[in-house]
Amino acid sequence: MATLIGLHVGQRHQPSGICVVEEERRSEIHYNVRFLERIPSGTNYPQIAQRAGEVTIGAARRAGATPELYVNATGFGAPIVGEVRKATGLATVVSVYFNHGDQLVEDGNSITLGKARLVTQLQLLLQSGRLHLPQSPEAEILGKDLQDYEIQPDPAANQREGAFRVGSRDELVTALGMALSGKKRHYSAIIR
Predict the structure, then answer these.
(1) Is 182:111 a contact under the CB 8 Å cutoff?
(2) Which of 29, 36, 81, 181 suits a disulfide with 189, CB 3.0-4.6 Å?
(3) pTM score above 0.90
(4) How far apart (Å, rounded) are the C-alpha atoms in residues 145 and 171?
């Protein structure tokens, strides 16, 4: 089964998040979160890429196989993905670009992913007992942030997605969601 890594790169004054998930075949696919880390705000992009490299190498050793790495490239584009590729040594790093709604569009090594789809998938997996979080402070933060996550339609029927409560963040939610919903094959396993 696959090892999946999601890296949410935060803006300059926001934390970043990294998550490692291992698939496990039971009667259906389960997802075991093996690692969650909130990278402090103010950490520069080369340091974030370096940390992603360390985590990726550790995950590859544990799994005995090359992990799939999904990086939030929205607002950053190719430069941050290139930096992460260099730090991890992976030939393929999938760029994830977020939009509204529930789209999932694959285009080579990039994906356009709707935040509503990402969060709905996480909620479905949690409620069906197929997503297994570690007992850690980061997992508690992730659980709280997922509960705080909202989809808010405006009068024009457009929507905003995010953690809108004061003190809420979504970097761990986003990192986990990218790892789990990065490819259509994962999505079809989640919603079967």
Answers:
(1) yes
(2) 29
(3) no
(4) 9
